[in-house]
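Researcher: Please translate sequence to structure tokens.
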Amino acid sequence: MEYVGVVGRRAERLYRQIGTGFAFVLFGVGGVVLSVTLFPFYCLFYSDPQERAGIAQRTVRETWRLFVWLLVNMRLIDLELEGVDILRQETGTLIIANHPSLIDIVLIISLMERAQCVVKEGVWKNPFMRGVVKATNYIPNLGDPERTLRECVAALKSGNNLVIFPEGTRTKPGKQVRLERGFANIAIRAGAPIRIVTVCCNPPMLRKGEKWYESPVRRACFRVRVGERIETAEVFDSRLPARCARDLTAQITKRFEEVIAHEPA
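Model: Translation complete:
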């Protein structure tokens, strides 16, 4: 019986490895299909760039929602959501989240209306994703911090939500939370509220440095929890913006640590 159980677990893990590979291929192909079909179609019928980007964002949200549904129903992951109705009602809000897994941004944006995010240079130049990030007016991080800051502030002031991972990279398990101050400077300059979102993945999956086929022994459960909203006006002092950014970063770092420490195993 024990042997049968071991074989069953190995077969289930092999299924998840193959399924994950299929999902990644589907995700990449889907990005290309959108880039050569719907997005050019939008250019023909919508002359206003902001309106066109908004429609592209809704298209990506629904596509990624379908992708997450597929992951769950193929039994590649489990998903638990808490307070996500709040996200659908946000406008002009800076959403900050920890980043334990490669698919965190897909999970979060699939739950939101009007949302942009900051994408690194590698994604901006990726042939499978380039058309998507351009059509949706996602903000590139190409080594010009001031330009990125201006575009993030403009996005928030226009009413879009903006998703940022303030650690700057995927969260390292067991390491102390270290947030960069960029998100605080953006929120202060835009006068935008901050909403904290935490993502927990147990057992860990698709961490930084891991390959897609390195599936955990058992199916991973992702928990997305929408936390508190912080009004930046409460900490803002126009005479000392740098100090405000530092204090805000320290305040939110502490809250991230508290929330993540109490996540169930």
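Researcher: Any highlights?
Model: The first strand starts at residue 77 and ends at 82.
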